[in-house]
Batch of 3 targets.
Target 1
Amino acid sequence: MKQYFNISGDGIVWDVKNEDFGHKDNFEFSGKGLDCIVDYGVDENGVLTLARYCAFPTLRMSPNNTHGTLAIDYDNAKLPKILINDIPVVEYGKKVSINGILAIESVTECGVQLKRTFIPDAKEMIMYEVIDITNSSENEIKLSVTECGRYGISRGVTGIYVHEVTHDAKDTTLAKGDSITFCIYYSAYKNALKYDYFGEDYYNTPDKALYDWKKALKDRIERVNELSNEAALDTGNAVLDTMYRFAKIRAGESIFNTKGGMFHSPGGRTYYAATWCNDQVEYAGPWFAFTDDVTAVKASVNAYEHYTPFMTEEYIHIPTSVIAEGTDIWEGAGDRGDAAMYLYGGSLFALTHGNKFMMERMWPALRWCAEYCERKTLPEGVIWSHSDELEGRFPTDNRANLSTSCLAYGGYKYMAMIAEYLDKHDYAKKYVDKAESLKTAIVNYFGAELHGYKTFRYSKGFDTLRAWICLPMCMGITDRLEDTLDAMFSEYLWNENGMLSCEIGPENKSATVWDRASLYGFKGAFMNGRFGNVWTQFFKYCNSRLLGERVPYAIEAWPEGARRHLSAESALFCRIIPEGILAIRPEAAREFSFIPRIPEGLDKVVLSNFRMCGDKVTITVTKDGYEVVGFANSIKGTTLGERVSFKTNREL
């Protein structure tokens, strides 16, 4: 891996060197009204390259499907141009800084310095490109910026959408050492004929008073700080702490305010104003309960509740995703085990949040999903589904796969705890029994010897190693643990990009990596106390994703998807710390446990201001012992490596 970035303060910086010429990357960031991606880099001569993309999730296009978001790849030829002495500037890239905000510095041949700062508006459909120009040359310069205005229009499902690119620059002269700041605004809005019964007809246009980049910058910094302060990590290791903090930002920012409520959505140029049973329900929801971020928790509840209209007494499978601001669905892959995803993610969300009202509110939907899984139980005791979250990209037998059964098993365990707390004791016993039966069935049905490893096959009839062999250990099934870990990090599944979704062989010809499996794998290894070589690989992964060729977040897939920075993968990364390194798990609705330990190479592990089982908690582990501080009680100890329980007594 070639490293381009270095850590600087709370962020990362790329100081462009000659040997870096030709490198390009992009950065994604979101507000509640839009998602933005800025492509940046330098060409083979060091000339700065930039491209801008904005998606507006509530401006729906026809067909109004998963991809029906107004999205604009801005053409540089049509954008405002900066002129120095009437000549368009040619910029040479000097520095790129990322810290929840993207800042790019460059210099012209005549020595004029530029700094571009890209900011998403917190609420409105506006991206700001703030440009600072300093005349560091020896001569006075004349500065001007060309106009763009109405960039284009699109015919959408609710009218004509106008996209504008405007700026507030004025023609000026800069003496040596003088500076100026102006802003380019990228916006979109619905343009329609309006009329006032007592006045004149008019076309609605945006309120230009909203175009306030200084306020937008302040709001963005506040939001980044909010996301940084919840469930904060301090290990003293700059790479791990920064990667974790950045992952919290990416996971928490991709939330859009739509007519269907707050939707946490993956992003990545493709997925907006919608929710998925894997990304939002299974991956992100439990993490957001852990952070207790108000906006993210609302988005999670909204995601869970958008599936309840499909939960009927006929027990037809719920859809894969609810799309287009909640007005449509997508279920093109059939039943992917979505009820099992919901059962696991929803029950863990409810337990982690720890609010009794929340558990009661979610109980009917969770019970429906549990019943659905029971009805899909095969004679062998495992759970049937058409496919999994990879939607048939890799072969299954269209009957049962390891993923669906493992998720159902985890869900049954958590449902038993919720039922006990809600005084539904018959259900509690039922789900305990269901979990035990399913655990036995998973080991018996999927257990196999592959390449000499006594591990799990993914589905019957396909004797190739798959990344999801890590799922049993993630759910607390420790049978075949050692061989499974060896298989995960063997030549068959592990390469420099992460864990292969499927080993290369007759059934699979490509070395495809989906980070979600690698992240589950790291978490599963750590929660079972296996560090060593796994920890080494984890740090290589962190260095690569944070500082290497594609930064600074976990990716969706490679080569598929061009390594998009989908937001829920970052939520999965965050979960490695509490659920993996500290092995935090609920034991009951008002009790959780963890294992105080410090992996080799760290001096401490401090996880502060997180929510678990209804309490706000801070865990501090040093080489001398541990301390857990909650709202009304605390505990201390000196023994590391043994599981510790902590009872809470507060509902927040």
Target 2
Amino acid sequence: MVYIHQRQESEIRRELLLSKLDAHAEVINNAYEKGTVDLLLPDIPKDLRVTIVNNDGKVLLDTGVPDASTMGNHDTRPELQQARFHKVGTSVRTSKTTGTKTFYYARYYGDHYIRAALPYDHVNTYYQGLETNNYYFIYTSIIVFLLMMIALFMLVRRYNTSLRQLGDLSNQIAQGVPLDQLALPSDDFGAMGQQIVDLLKEKEQAIAAIREARKRLILHFKLSNIGIALFDKDGNTEFANSHFILYANMLATRPMTNANELIDEPNLEKVKHFLEDKKHKKKSLIQTINQCNKIFEIKALKSKDGSFELTIEDITKEENNRVLKHEMTSSITQKLRTPLISIRSYLETLNFMDISDEKRKEFTQKAYSQAVHMNEVLDDIRLLTKLDDEDEALVDFTPVNLRLVAEEIRIAYTAAFTEHGITFANELPSELTIRGNQSLLYDIFKNLVENSLRYAGDNIEINIRSYHEDKKYAYISYHDTGKGVDEKTLGRLFDRFYRADEGKSEEGKGGTGLGLSIVRNAIQIHGGQVQARIHPSGGLEVLFHLRK
């Protein structure tokens, strides 16, 4: 706007200047035609130089030169050539006469030219009213412009700040900053941001609820140890957990990648027929399958829309426990029946027969021995039952020095060792300590020693040593140099109620058949395993490890 105004003002000033010079030219021309130029010259402004040139370019008069005849031909002057065709001509150039930059104005009158020359630096001050620009408009325009810029700057800064804060809000959300700690703008954008935050909170709450439900469901599947799979009405798998895939591959005759392939297995023909039978009134079916030395219970459940659910549960342990309890009941009955019959026979003899004092004393001692044997059986059964039912997490574990435990055994059985000529060597390192149960560790070594006392014979050596140790386990070897056992019976030594020498039991000298079973269970509670082998000396060696 300032530029346009200045340009228009410049045009106006030029027109005014030309009008002023044109007026001078008219006055001078009138005087020239009347021959009174000399009388007019004193009234011409001092800075205005007047020249009269004829058609041939000859200077007739020049107020800036005393003698005009000395001046050269002006026919080629641009202002004259322009005036010849347009009556009026102007130019700005350096004067050859004065050597200064000059504004020339020429007017053509048919047979001569009237030219006015004005120093260029006098143009703006030549007449009153044109000496200065209209600075009021410029200043007003600049002030208005600055005010507009300030207003625009404040507006832009306001919205820029809000947009930057929204950008920061977006970055904070992306970085996982809690929604309650987000910084929001205090303007309309802030209200918009608050609405976004509220929506995100609702979404987070919904997602958190879904995640929590999912965690509970997954935890339920993990703790239940049951394989579960859901299928739509077309038999396509909608969901199958890892237990189902594992069990399904154990039941399948070929590797499976999709859970629905299990239904086509031959051993699940009964389940397949149940699922395909639309007229079957029952909505569930249970089938038990023996596979891979395990027992699986498969349950099928149909829905009204045709979808169905399959679950696979490994019930091997439950079945084995059931069988084991049945066998234990039979074995316990047999174990207690024999000494009871013996005690009854001895007591009947003492009560109804007239025998000598020596025989009476002998029968009384035998009855007492059988009673002690029965008590040992009951004690071992009680301990073994406790080990079966004991949860490792509930056992009181404390730091236990294994060498000191073995020393307690040596001290407790010193008399028996001396009686049978047994040498006991405790070679366990003095610093060998594990986190275990003192009582159960004592029972491990106690039952191993009693097994040697009963079956290994006299004049033998018993040795306990640590043959290896790492960060997790301590590896222990127990062996005697006694009679040993048949290699075929090694695999059954840790079975309940098994004895390699049944004859001693009949004599009342044998054990309960539960000692080595107690050893195995106590070792398992301590995170280890046990096995037996023939020692190079011919005796029995028991190797086991305990979690440190």
Target 3
Amino acid sequence: MRLILGVDTGGTFTDAVLLDAASGAVKATHKAFTTHENLAVGIEAALDGLPRGAWPQVDRAAVSTTLATNAALEGLGSRVGCILIGYDPGVMRHYRLDRHLRASEVVHVDGRHDIFGEEVTPLDLDGLRDAVMHLAGDVDALAVSSYLAPRNSDHEHRALRLLRELTDVPVVAGGALSAQLDSIRRATTATLNAKLLAITSELLGTVEPSIRQRGVGAAPLVVRGDATLMALDLARERPIDTLFSGPAASAVGGARLAGIDRAVVADMGGTSTDVGILDDGRPTLTARGASLAGWRTAVRAAAVRSAPVGGDSRIRSDPLDLFIGPDRVVPLSRAAARQPEIRHRLAELDSQRQSHRLVPVWEFFALGRPLAEEVVSNAEQRVLRALADGPVDVITLAAQADVRDARLLPVDGLVARRLITRIGLTPTDLLHVRGEYADFDVEAATIASRIAARESRSDVDAFTARAHEAVIRALGTATLRRAIASGQPDLAESDEKLGAYLLDTSASPSSRVGPLDVGLGLTLPLIALGAAGAAWLPQVASRLRTECVVPEHAAVASAVGAASTRIVQEVEVLLRPQYLRRGGAIDYAVHSPEGRAMFASESEAREHALTVGRRAAESAAAAAGATRPSIDVDEHTWTLDRDDPDEPVQLMETRFRFTATEAGPE
């Protein structure tokens, strides 16, 4: 029997599965905790849980991950400087477009092409050098985007060459990531890609040797956000393509495990719950590009709504409000099960009735990954020294780090760089308190909930019921918004008061308000996936008036999907005539991944487009790991009718889409 290995590294768990290559049947599974301070530990533990004798039968391995998605949600990653070539600084300021880029700093450089790809302003190489000098030492990576790179990428290519000569930090070009004309989305995509480079590189640099050490000859493939596979080296260069990798894999795995081709699928992990829609057994894809947590990218990905609520979401409370997510923390129940001193300190805080209106006094911090070459401030250094002997609660940490108020502790930057981890109250702890889950330290979860309840001016039962209801409503409204987005994408994002009221009421225990029943429901079944899915999502389905399906192996659906995914690569080539004002084409431009080429006749341009498109698709498929891909060509031509019916129609453009596919397991 030949086998396929699937691995999924999420915010909380790393899962490994073995599938029968012929039938797709699940033969073995194992879960282990994701160890963010050293990913290799969690990956090795997941692989070691599979049968040792199966490794010689493994022909292929594939990896999915939610690390990129979670990093975007939590604001983690490298500091990025964004260099914009040919963008109008005045327009950017007037419309506040810089905020979409979310870079540490944005610098403008002169240089521009027109819509036909002709240079109208030369690239300012001296300005580029000044930009590098200005950003040096303040950023970990650079993103560069030329305003009309899809029409002519010459300025970006020249900028890349110069930047790589002048600096040692990674440099990312927007035009290499997307052919969209939307210049802001392209620049945003380049910035986020640069931000994610280090996070994804750590994962891929760990998982490959772990798999190879077990005798699997081929390098593992990586699941893209559009539920296709790419090669490991490509994933290292383009971590942005792994955005929604985990949700895309879980949708494919959910369809296979549940045997359902059309459904709403929700995967509840540690950091987030990802909601998508299955059509013909595949996740539906975004029309323009993946968006989450304020990032508007040009990346083709599964159309997923990520609710920042998962089993490990941070719960904070005060007398006026309760907040769940978007940060992921280590559940107190889990941390205390490993280190009982946490439970003992919680008991002391409870007996002392410690309180701080603006800081969760039940939270702890612990060291994360080892300090490498990062620059840390003196205050941050004091925090790291205070944590050297183990986890410390926030009140004690402030005293030991010589900070007069716990609010002033410089912990957020250290958490963002994963140098320390936060331990706190989570939905997983709520399940322990409510008696629905008891794998870890129930007493620690109960004490922390009692402290949080006191801060909220309530008792434990009322607090946990309130927090539990907040989780259900957050999941319910996210599911409804994703369903609405399938027909009305813009409406689904609206926060207009009436719409928000209808969504929240529909996700409530009762949708009846006086004489009105405002309940919105789903017409498709809800497939519940993920380690926490079975605990929460059946209640969501009940409120949304639909069936909930929790298939066998639902907790490892992403790993199953990774092993079931195919290699697919798409390349687009554009043919456009350039007309004189008096009419008649003067020449034809072909825009492709190989650059812009000009031809005197439409037939020559068409022949070139077909040749270069096939070559680019085959090359992309080979880079993704395909050996004998089939190439399909889809052609769409836009013409303008003449007033005189006897005159031939006027060609405006022809778009060729080349799809290279290598079949996966049936």
